[in-house]
Structure formats: structure tokens, C-alpha cells
Input
Amino acid sequence: MAETGEVKKNGSIRPAPAEVPAVEASAAAGAAPADAVAQAQDYYAQLLRLKADFENYRKRVDREKPEYIKLGRAEVVLRLLPVYDMLLKAHEEVQASHTDTPLAKGMEMIFKEFEKLFREEGVAAMEPVGRPYDAMLHEVLGSVEREDLDDGVVVDVVQKGFTLDGRALRPAKVRIAKKTQASNVKEASS
Output
């Protein structure tokens, strides 16, 4: 067992003789001082590399942290969207049939709080009606023959789509316009 070291006046501990590093022991045994210096320089270089690696790691974590937080927010919001969809349907039904009842007022308050939460978190509903179909934002569930609109224009929203901080969170499920055969023939002959 090694003896405990002495405590100096400045608070540092002087190692007991058995704890003296191998560098000092080899120097005392007659090994070349140049070898000890080279070994110390090697250890110092390793220390500097480890310090730089750790600093790079800390910077990378600091850079990636907001992205992980954003992904976590997106995951939570995605789990809330089905609840929002059901609440929206219930809200529409109550507004249509029980406009001035306590139930309607309560539903309105709940719905407004839900929308406020979404706004605060950066969630926005897409408004695709009248806009061209975009595969990154819309999922087509069907088409509707319309002479007054170009092919591929969104006509109807079956399920709302949402963005989080401007990026698509859930695509809107839509129906798009499809020109009738008669109007396609007229355009081709013109």
C-alpha cells in the first residue's frame, strides 16, 4: 500500500514516494532525459488533441440542440393533430346546430385555446384551395371534373395540412380539378 502524500502550504499534495510517475523513476534510474522529455511532449500533444476534440464536440452539440428541440416539438404536434381534427369536427357540428348554448361557448373557448397553442408553437394550417397541387404539401385523394379550373388546381380539402415554422408537418389531403373531356378537345382544336 502506498503512503499518503504530504499537503503543501498552497494546498497541493506532494505524492508519496510510491506514487512518483514513471517518468521521474526512469530519469532517476539513469534513462536518458531526452526520452523523458519526448514522452512528456507526446503526452502534452495528446492532451491538446483531446481538448480540441472536446471543444469541437461541445460546439457541435450546441449547434444541433435547437434542431433536436424542433424535432421533439414536431413529434408532439403530430400526435396532437388527430385530437385537433376530432375537435374541429365537433366544433363545426356544435356551431351548426347549437349556436347559442353553453356547449357551443365552451367548445369555442377550447378551440381558441388549441389554435393559440398552435400559433405559439409555430404551427399553421395550410390553405391550398385554389392553388396548384404541390406533392410536398398535398396528398391527392381524388379529382373533380371542372371546366373553370386548370388541371391540378386544389378544389377541396378533405383533411387540413399543417406546417411547423414554414416546413410541411402533415400534408393536406385534397381533391384536385380535372378538366372535362369536352373542354380538353376544345383546347386541343384551338
